[in-house]
Amino acid sequence: MYRSLERDGHEVRAVATEPSHAGCFDSLVHKVPDWRAELPWVGPDGLILFERVGVGAVQEELRREGYQVIGGSTFGDRLEYDRAYGQSVLRDAGLNIADVHGFESAPQAAEWLRAHPGRFVLKYHNNARATFVGDHRAGLDVLFQLGRGPQGPVLLMPYLDGVEVGVGAYFDGTRFLRPACIDFEHKRFFNGEMGEMTGEMGTLVAYPEDNRIFEASLARLEPLFAEAGHVGYVNLNMIANEQGLWPLEFTCRFGIPGFAILAPLQTAGWGDLFARMLARNAARFPASADWSVGICLTVPPFPQQLPDALPEDDPPLFYHAEPEAEEAAHYHLADVRLEAGQLFARRRTGYAICVTGTGPTVEDAQREATARARNVTAPNLRWRTDIGDRFLEGEGERLRCLGWL
User: Fold this and answer.
1) Is 97:239 a contact under the CB 8 Å cutoff?
2) Over 90: is that where the pLDDT of 114 sits?
3) What CATH number did the domain enclosing 131 receive?
4) For position 93, what pLDDT does the model report?
5) Are residues 56 and 6 in the same domain?
6) Residue 309 contacts by C-beta under 8 Å, 6 or more apart in sequence?
7) Nearest-5° angle of CA 354, CA 135, CA 111?
């Protein structure tokens, strides 16, 4: 995002607020140590962009001081962090919600699960740990996880069969800009939805003109986001089945790598989109009708992290053919740095690049993304080769039969 803004002629300064992120994008973007010291440079005509959740109060104070800010709000923070509250908001808006069970501590949840065995999904308050999707029919794996993980507040949700689909849109403080996207995330480490739950290994996205899922779900919360003065991206993840839409959780920030996979479909670029959000006088932004497929390319230790990894252990990244001009916009750098002209993936996370491909069909987008993935090489590089296959092998047809596509 930062580099594409620079290519379009905007001035960009970036800050890594977490010490472990300090080396990210070295020699790739203009980095500064303290964003508050840059406020005179930003001024009333510039933009402050927050990527993370949990700093809504800071953003609201900056807006009161006259700065233009995109990121979120305290309302968005609470929707994402306090999952029980998020479910209550959805219920009050008239949406379906599963029989969620909130507990003040993990031991309380474990005691309840022993009395009510079944397959459940475990979610942690304040994103203290990644969501754990249980596979055991009696919930023994979730029970074990409850004993090992953080002992604070948790949420247990029954596992729902259906198509997992997300909808997302940009909110300008008063309304959602159209079009809204639909997305199909692939969170498991390996093909065929096996292995560890990662943040995301790749996603299939589109901006359908007739987005029935969005209008039946997230769009109904528009008055609440307007009341909160939220400015930023909002995503709602759901399960669609024969009984309806079942919202699972909010993401009230720029999703990673979701923002990157949407970028090729946003035909006027990030600068134009941000300007429309800040002006609050545009109901829409230009977007392609194509599909976009994103594939995440990683190296060890991903999906784990090595906070104390040394720069000399960072593996080099190479292109077989150096991407230029418009082609370069499909290579979305993640946790990388540049040194003496050589690109390195940081061993801290091993999350190197997300490549994208677009086309009028899912198959076309897959072919483009796969070709770009094969253009990258690094020691022990890994990536999934089946992003979008679930949609082609039945999920898309099931959604069509249910009337959502």
Assistant:
1) no
2) yes
3) 3.30.1490
4) 95
5) yes
6) 346, 347, 348
7) 120
pLDDT of 163-208, one tens digit each?
999 999 999 999 999 999 999 999 999 999 999 889 899 999 999 9
Interior angle at CA 168, CA 76 and CA 386, nearest 5: 125
Q: How many CB atoms lie under 10 A from the CB of residue 55?
A: 17
The range of the structural domain enclosing residue 16 comes to: 2-78
Within-domain flag for 28: yes
Q: What are phi and psi of 73, to 5 degrees?
A: -170, 170
Listed residue (27, 18, 33, 31) closest to 344, CA to CA: 27
Residue 232 amino acid letter = G
CB 113 within 8 Å of CB 142: yes
Give pTM, 2 decimals: 0.92
Cα of 78 vs its chain's centroid, Å? 17
Does 66 map to a domain?
Answer: yes
Is there a contact between 108 and 256 (Cβ–Cβ < 8 Å)? no
> Could you read off the pLDDT of 217-226 as tens digits, one per residue?
999 999 999 9
Total domains in the fold of the chain:
2
Residue 362 backbone class (left: φ over 0; alpha: ψ -120 to 50; beta: rest) = alpha
- Tell me: the pLDDT tens digits for 258-281? 999 999 999 999 999 999 999 999
Q: Which of 182, 180, 181, 185 is nearest to 203 (CA)?
A: 185
Q: Residue 24: inside a domain, yes or no?
A: yes
Give how far Cα 24 sits from Cα of 33, 311, 345, 402, Å.
Answer: 13, 11, 9, 44
Q: Which one-letter amino acid corresponds to residue 352? A: A
Torsion angle of C-alpha atoms 224, 17, 48, 38, degrees rounded to 10:
150
State the residue for tokens 């409850």: 146
Among residues 137, 158, 179, the one where a domain terminates is 158
C-alpha Rg value of the chain to the nearest Å: 21
Residue 147 lies in a domain: yes
Tell whether 17 and 48 lie within a shared domain.
Answer: yes
Q: Tell me the one-letter amino acid at 19.
A: P
